[in-house]
Amino acid sequence: MAAIRVSLKRRLKAFREPDTRKRSVGYAEGTYVIHDKRRNYPTEDTDYVQIEHPDLGEVWLCTRWMQTSYAEFQEIARNSKVENSISKAISQALGQIGANDTSHEGKLCIEERMITDLLPNFGAFVHNLSNTTYPFPINGLNIKVGPPYLNNCCAFVEALLVQAWSANCAGFKWSASRHAQMMILSDSDFFSPVSAAVESGMARLNPNFGVYPAPWSLLQVWREKWSEGQTMLIVDCHLESGKVLVLESNDKYGLNGVGFRGIGMLRDMDSRPPTNWWQLPDVWTWDQLKAAYPLRKMAALKVKNRSWSGL
Questions:
Q1: Residue 76 has pLDDT above 90, yes or no
Q2: Does residue 137 contact residue 143 with C-beta atoms inside 8 Å?
Q3: Which residues contact residue 188 at a Cβ distance below 8 angstroms, ignoring those fewer than 6 apart?
Q4: pTM here?
């Protein structure tokens, strides 16, 4: 199986659809692997390719106008088994620090159970976009502790991760400014939950959009710029099927509170994923998630000794 790489001869406008009459969402330059292509579309005057841009997500570029070409193309060999093994190796490298690592970064790596043991605290929560409470106080923050038990995607992820790291890492620090990042209170960074996790030391940024997410990845995604966003955790990815185990607080996809996307509520399954969750028909694939949320950023949490997903 082969893939096509496109090298742009000049800076090109990027579009959500293969149509230069639409509003541009930004610019692209450099070299990319092509996801899709349209030759002689919508007329014989133009060609388009779809790429994945690290800032813009999946976009279309016009690579030819009549006799003028704006790009060069090269076929590159691809092997799905090799890609999967490389992807898995990258994911493991991003998501796990050796148990013998005594550096500051290593000391901020926690056991998986330190996260999963907290999940029963979220069983009573229901989704509420504007009014949120937490299951426990967080040092330095002026937050409400339930009841009532209400949260949204940002509050759930903050409560779970900050409590896990605060309780187990002496060098971990959180603050009101980090809380503001988790709540995306500034329009200077619409991926600020990921930024907060990386800057606080609990995660490492994954800059490679082509690789599967590492186990225990934190994602901030958007359907549009900047609307219909979601903060979520990807616990694991089943490489053979491409299915991802998404843990989040949501009021869609079979949820009204904290649970697994396409599977069900955390409280209904003893606060753990079902056996062989990747075989369930409504579990999303990584490709499905990428298509739904073209704007995204992710970081691998520093978690070791993983087995909770069953993979």
A1: no
A2: yes
A3: none
A4: 0.72
